[in-house]
Amino acid sequence: MKLAILGPLSREYEQVRLLEEATKLFDTVSYFPIPQVAVELRDGFDLKYKNKSLLNYDSFLPRIPRSYKTFGTTLLYFLKKAGKPLPIEPSSVIASHNKFLTLVRLVEAGLPVPETHLAIRREVIEKLLKEMDYPLVLKLLYGSKGVGVMFADSEQSAVSVIDALQRFKETIFLERFVEPGNEDIRAYVIGGKVVAAMKRVAKQGERRANIGIGGHGEPYRLSSTEKKLAIRAAEAMGMGICGVDLMPSEDGPVIIEINVNAQFKGLESATQKNIAREILKYVRGLHGKVDG
Ligand SMILES: Nc1ncnc2c1ncn2[C@@H]1O[C@H](COP(=O)(O)OP(=O)(O)OP(=O)(O)O)[C@@H](O)[C@H]1O
Ligand SMILES: [Mg+2]
After folding, report:
1. CA-CA distance, 100 to 158, in Å (whole number)?
2. Residue 200 pLDDT > 50, yes or no?
3. 14 shares its domain with 104
């Protein structure tokens, strides 16, 4: 069986691990940097990397970074048209990279998310800032790895953050602070099952629990409610592979984010689970299961 991995130009931990495990499970494995693939339209369509057609492959593993979200979605659209099995729905890439759209999808599926408000006009935002509780979370639509998530302890500090962001023409949304904060739970869902989970705890003096900014991960056993939520969230997003971020709260867990391209370096080291292998086993199992 032939596997095509579509990913970024640079090969980081995840790409290296996926290639390593892929060669154990597939006869042929090729890595296609997304920006070097071209869509060809002429008597039908083809996807080409140099002179090679991607349509000769049986299985596909897309790892689409935010910078290629639109082009990546286009590639998935054509792969789907060609009847290829995909671990994620093409539209889920756009929805996942936009944090607000993610919340929209979750709410549509009846899943719990923190109270959130999106507005662009100054007066509308100011009115919201008067009504909301503090601390308040302000998020960029396209932040990642903790960058783009801000906290305001008062209306005054929220206004000053918004002043700066509007100057740079950044769209932000306002989110209720989920108490007690300082930690979140990452559940890695593959093929409708949680294969590993960890709790991430923010470093001292920091409210964001991301590992890249000093947080640490520890293995975590999800409650049955958390497990069900993570699985339903992945399903609502149309993702067979994703990282679901949850936060426990007094009113039960809420989902704060779904990552289509979730990294797993921290999770593999915190849980000793072979996430890369789980991903590839799932992708291999999709072969022959296309239902249109
Ligand atoms: N509503 C909230 N209330 C309290 N803390 C929050 C809230 N939203 C986010 N946080 C904290 O900020 C961290 C980062 O937030 P989030 O997961 O939304 O963005 P991100 O990690 O930058 O995005 P990505 O996971 O795509 O890289 C979370 O791990 C959590 O610790
Ligand atoms: Mg996150």
Report:
1. 19
2. yes
3. no
Give domain status of residue 288, yes or no. no
* Cα–Cα distance for residue pair 120/155, rounded to 1 Å: 17
- In what side-by-side order are the strands of the sheet with 52-53? 37-41, 45-49, 52-53
Domain assignment present for residue 215? The answer is yes
Ligand 1 centroid from CA 137, angstroms: 9
Helices then strands, counting H and E runs in the chain, come out as: 9, 15
Centroid of ligand 1 to alpha carbon of 13 (angstroms) = 22
- What is the rounded CA–CA span in Å between residue 154 and residue 132? 10
Domain tally for the chain? Answer: 3
Per-residue pLDDT reduced to its tens digit, 18-59: 999 999 999 999 999 999 999 999 999 999 999 999 999 999
Enumerate residues with CB within 5 Å of ligand 2 (an ion): 245, 257
The atom number, within ligand 1, closest to the CA of 254 reads 1
pLDDT digits (tens, 9 = 90+) for 134-192: 999 999 998 888 899 999 999 999 999 999 998 999 999 999 999 999 999 999 999 99
Asked whether residue 216 is assigned to any structural domain, the reply reads: yes
- Model pLDDT, residue 274: 98
The C-alpha atoms of residue 56 and residue 26 are separated, in whole angstroms, by 14
Structure token digits, residue 33:
């940097």
Is residue 104 domain-shared with residue 163, that is, in the same domain?
no
**Average confidence (pLDDT) over 85-97:** 96
Q: Which residues pair with 183 in a beta bridge?
A: 201
pTM over 0.85: yes
- Side by side, the strands of the sheet bearing 172-176 are 116-118, 172-176, 136-144, 147-152
Q: How far is the CA of 189 from the centre of ligand 2 (A)?
A: 15
Residues 216 and 134 in one domain: no
